[in-house]
Amino acid sequence: MTARSQALDMLRAVARKDAGTRIAHQFAVDPKRVERMGVEAAGLYLDLSKQSWTAEGFEAALDLARACDIEGRRAALFGGEAVNNTEGRAVLHPALRAADDADFRALGEPVSEEVAATRREMARFAADIGSGAETSGAKQPFSAIVHIGIGGSDLGPRLLWDALRPLDPTIDLRFVANIDPRDMGEALAGLDPETTLVVVVSKTFTTQETLANADLAKAWLAANLSPRRMAKHLIGVTAAPDKAETWGCGRTFGFRDWVGGRYSLWSAVSLSVAVALGWDVFERVLDGARAMDQHFLTADLERNAPVLLALAQIYNVEGRDRHARTVAPYAHGLRRLPAFLQQLEMESNGKRVKRDGRPVDTATGPIVFGEPGTNGQHAFFQQIHQGPMVVPAEFVVVRHTSDAAMDDREGDAPLWSNALAQAQALMIGKTGAEARAELIAAGASEAEADRLAPHKTFPGDRPSTTLLMDALTPERVGALLALYEHKTFVEGVIQDINSFDQWGVELGKVLAKAILTDVQAGEPSAGLDPSTAELMKRLMV
Ligand SMILES: O=P(O)(O)OC[C@H]1O[C@H](O)[C@H](O)[C@@H](O)[C@@H]1O
């Protein structure tokens, strides 16, 4: 038996024992709990004291981390080894936010100089668009950007823009991901092709949705601009520049195969955001992520925010059979965080085999879902409070969400007090006796109180994590996303899986092509299952 499986078994055993004690009770028996389970990292504060683990459970989780050689795997990642072992690639997103004079190597090849050169190129392009030095085909300043991309080529940049955009931006930045033409139709509505820049973002430059949308945008430009002028409006961001140029991009910005799609927002993938926000703002995002990298690299495991966040999840999934997690960002600017995390975590760790191809011996990633607070409170939170299934919650709380809120006397207190209240309610709950006493106090008869009390009872003892930041600044947003990246990596290490491939998305793509071929031929191919054939026929009429 390996040290890892021994530690895993121990964690499961301790967690089963922990089930007999309530979270709220732990504060009484362990006065150091908040201190021990609260850590600061790169301007964020992480509170894990409302998780279900006892002091013993917390230690058992740390022992598991120690048994999994997190330090060794972390060194392999930062050292540019082939951590993505099914594709033989390094995984070096930290190199993208490192200092200019860093010396990262991917499989031994130096990469930092090229990273710095691309950053300089991006900075110049952003400055030139901003100043009007870089003009459209008609020699006018650009006033709008249409960013076309999907998955990792969409979610990160979109989140950055939502979180950091000014209320009245000088560049009208719009995102298009879906192959439903409605998405592009909405994005192009009201834009002037003469002053619109189209940025096509695709690592592979083969993604069906992105190419279909890029063709739509090109046709829209072509209806108004000459081919020579049009080239100035078409920018590619890709790891396959030849493909982008063949397609018609007048200029391309590159990144390498050691940048995974869902880890790519630190690269030229965020070009359109860097242009629209200004390069200095984007640089501050990188600074924040770099601060989190430093924390991850240097903090002891028991004070290491990404490690502890990962352990809380492993404890819930492995120890307590909790296979879902809800994320509630209490900031309108972070409303797409759940969608970003769905890709980051579920595409990274939703795996059935370990690095060596043998079946996993853990449950791997849980289902991640969420909505911004307070919206989610008026919808699915009912089930989080009273449903029979325990769903750990994660509250991301921002003291000042925007300048507008800071002008208000109460600031954001009405927003964040809701987050604190939800976490508290989940933990303390309300007993049947308390519910009954409240009903009686409100004038209900004994019989009525007996009838209604079970409906008004909250089991409580439901775990949550709270993440605090002072303001939605570029640095904090960068640190937050880097925190989640490293958390995802640590989970993958503990589960012994490759977090950096995504073969699970391939089969559907291949079958979609085959179905489209059938549709073009006018009938389902022989051998197609009857259900799919029937659905296809109904759609083809
Ligand atoms: O950037 P692209 O090559 O167009 O890929 C876009 C996305 O599609 C793929 O199917 C993967 O699931 C994602 O990880 C990726 O981010």
| CATH homology superfamily name of the largest domain | Glucose-6-phosphate isomerase like protein, domain 1
CATH class of the largest domain: Alpha Beta
CATH topology of the largest domain: Rossmann fold
Mean pLDDT across every amino acid position: 96
In this structure, how is the largest beta sheet organized?
Answer: 6 strands, mixed
Structural class: alpha/beta
* Sheet with the most strands: spatial strand order: 1-2-13-12-10-11
Number of strands: 13
Active site: 347 (proton donor), 378, 509
EC number: 5.3.1.9
Function: Catalyzes the reversible isomerization of glucose-6-phosphate to fructose-6-phosphate.
GO molecular function, one term: glucose-6-phosphate isomerase activity
